[in-house]
Amino acid sequence: MKKILNILLSVLLFATLYSCEDFLDLQPASNGIAVENQSSDSVLYKSASEAEAALAGVYGDFRNEYFELDYFVNGDAQADGAYAGADNPANFQIDDYNIDATNLNVTRDWAYLYSTIGKANLVIDNVDAVTDTLLTATRKAQIKAEAAYIRAYMYFQLVQLWGDVPLVLNSVSSFNLEILPLLFPPRTPADSVYAQIILDLETALPNVPETAINKNYVTKGAVNAVLAKVYATIEPHDWNKVSQYCDAVIGGPYSLLPNYDELWDNAHENSSEAIFEINYEGTSSSGNWGVSMFIGLDWKKFNIPSNDLVKAFRDEGDNIREASSILFDTVTGKWSDSHWTNQTYYPFINKYRIASSPSPQNYIFIRLADILLLKAEALNELGDVNGAAALVNQIRTRVNLANTTAANQDAMRLAIEKERRLELAFEGHRWFDLICLYH
C-alpha cells in the first residue's frame, strides 16, 4: 500500500509541475480529476475574484508547452509539410510514425491536457457556490460556459490523438483511497467522448459573448467554429451540421484581412479574421517561448519545412503564401540536414517571427479562412460544387491566384485539400485534415 501511495503521489506531483498557475491550492491528477484542498465549509471559491482567478488559470494553460510547441509537432511534423528537425528523439518518433511507450512528448501532452480538464472541472463544479454578490448569476453562467468550451477543446485534442480516452467530468473534494477509481478511470469509447464535446459546446454557446476585442476569450464564433470542426471529424461526418455551424461563424463579425501577410506581421493582432487567438504580452509571465523553437540561427530548429511543401507552393505559383510561411536563410557551418543539403538555402517557418525571449508573438488557432474552406468542403460533400468553388476562389483571390479549375466533386475535394494545405501551413491542422480526408 505504501508503494501504491508513493506512486500516486509522484503522478500527482508530475501533473502539478506541468501547471503554470499556483493561485489555488490544487493538485491536478493524471486523468483530469483535480483534488481540492477545501476548508470545512466546502466552498472552494470565497469571492468573485477567486472564481475569476480560477478561470484565468484554465485559460492560462493555452500558454503551456503543449500549445506552444507540441500542438504544431503533432499537427505538422507528422504530416507532409515539415520534418521533425532539431535533435529530439521523441519528435523523430512522431515524424516517423514509430512512437513507443517511453515517448516523452506523449507523456507530457497527456498530462497537460488532463491537467487543464481538471482545472475546468473545478470551475464548472464550484462557481455556482460562490456567494459574493459581485459575481452575478449571468457571469457565473458565462464562467461555466467558458470553462466548458475549454474542456471540450482539450477533449477534442485528446480524442483526435488517441481515440478512446478516459472521460472525466467532475472534481473531487478530498483525497482518500476510495477515489482511486475516479483518479484512474478506464478509457471511454471515442463516440461517447465526441458526444460530451458536443454537449459542452452546445451548453456553452448561449452563454458566451458574440465577440471580443481580445480574441483570447471564448466567443460564439469560437464555439461555432469548434462545433463545425467536430462534426467534420466524427464518423460518419455530418456535413449538414458542419455547414450549419460554419454559417453561424461566417455570419458573425469576421472578415478576411486584405493582405495575407498581415496575419503574421504582428501589427494586426486580434484582427477581424481571428476567431480564437492566444495573446502574449512578451513579459516573463506572458512570453511565447515557442517561437524560438521554430526560427533562429542559434541551434537547429523544430518543424523544418519540407521539400514537398515548398514544391507545392511553387507548382501553384503561390508566391505570397510561400513568402509569408517560409523564410530561407543560410546555416553554413552551423548544422547539417539530410533533407536540405544546401546550407545557404535553408528553410524556417516564417509565420512565427519574433523569436525574442520572451516573445510577444500571438498564436492564431482558429481563423475565418479555415472556416470558409471547411464550409466549402461541406458544400462539396453535399453536392454543391459551384458553391464550394466560390469559397475556394475567395481564398485564392486574396493571394492573387486564379480561380480553381475543379469542376466535379472529386476534383473539388482535392482542390480544397490543396488549398487548406497552402493556406494553413504550419498552423497545426495538416495531420488532422489528412486523417479526415482519407479515413
Based on the model shown, name its key terms:
439 residues; mainly alpha; Serine Threonine Protein Phosphatase 5, Tetratricopeptide repeat; two-stranded antiparallel ribbon; 16 helices; 48% helix; disordered N terminus
What does this structure look like?
The chain is mainly alpha-helical. The chain has two domains: 2-63 and 107-208, Serine Threonine Protein Phosphatase 5, Tetratricopeptide repeat, CATH 1.25.40.890; 229-439, Serine Threonine Protein Phosphatase 5, Tetratricopeptide repeat, CATH 1.25.40.390. The protein is built from 16 helices and eight strands. The protein has helices spanning 2-17, 48-60, 65-77, 89-95, 104-126, 137-162, 180-183, 190-204, 220-233, 239-250, 307-315, 319-325, 368-381, 385-398, 409-423, 430-438; strands at residues 26-28, 34-36, 82-85, 274-278, 302-305, 326-329, 346-349, 363-367. The chain has a two-stranded antiparallel sheet with strand order 1-2. It has a two-stranded antiparallel ribbon with strand order 3-5. Strands 4-8 form a two-stranded antiparallel ribbon. α2 (48-60) runs parallel beside α6 (137-162). It is globular and about 65 Å long. It starts with a helix and ends with a helix.
Q: How helix-rich are the residues, as a percent range?
A: 40-55%
- Class by helix and strand content? mainly alpha
What proportion strand? Answer: 5-15%
CATH topology category name of the largest domain: Serine Threonine Protein Phosphatase 5, Tetratricopeptide repeat
CATH architecture of the largest domain: Alpha Horseshoe
What is the radius of gyration? 22 Å
Numbering strands along the chain, what is their spatial order in the largest sheet? 1-2
List SSEs in N-to-C order. Answer: HEEHHEHHHHHHHEEHHEEEHHHH
Strand element count: 8
Q: Using the alpha-carbon principal axes, give the shape.
A: globular
